[in-house]
Amino acid sequence: HVQLVESGGGSVQAGESLRLSCVGPGWVSRMYCMAWFRQAPGKEREGVATLDLNGLSSVDDSLKGRFTISKDVTKNTLWLQMNSLKPEDTAMYYCAAGPIGCRSWSYWGQGTQVTVS
Description:
Elements: E1 5-7, E2 10-12, E3 18-23, H1 28-31, E4 33-39, E5 46-51, E6 57-59, E7 67-72, E8 77-82, E9 91-98, E10 107-108, E11 112-116
Parallel strand pairs: 2-11
Antiparallel strand pairs: 1-3, 3-8, 4-5, 4-9, 5-6, 7-8, 9-10, 9-11
């Protein structure tokens, strides 16, 4: 069974930073494309960033310059560095894993809440 677990969320003031982590089975980050999504109450889930199996990252245009996705395969960990946080970044953040192409997602974490005020 594939279980992804996010952590690192919390409540911060605007302008501050957070680093989210997503830990899964050792083979997930090695064999799957991975990504971060977020969803605010009453809104659709939106893509934040993706990281393919070759280490190529893609960040949503609206978040470029503030958010960075990375991973450490040896630690089975996916990260999302979030800088200069804004109130509109408030959402539940989820990590996901999917097949090559980074277009669909097979596994999801339970989410970690980020609140910016």
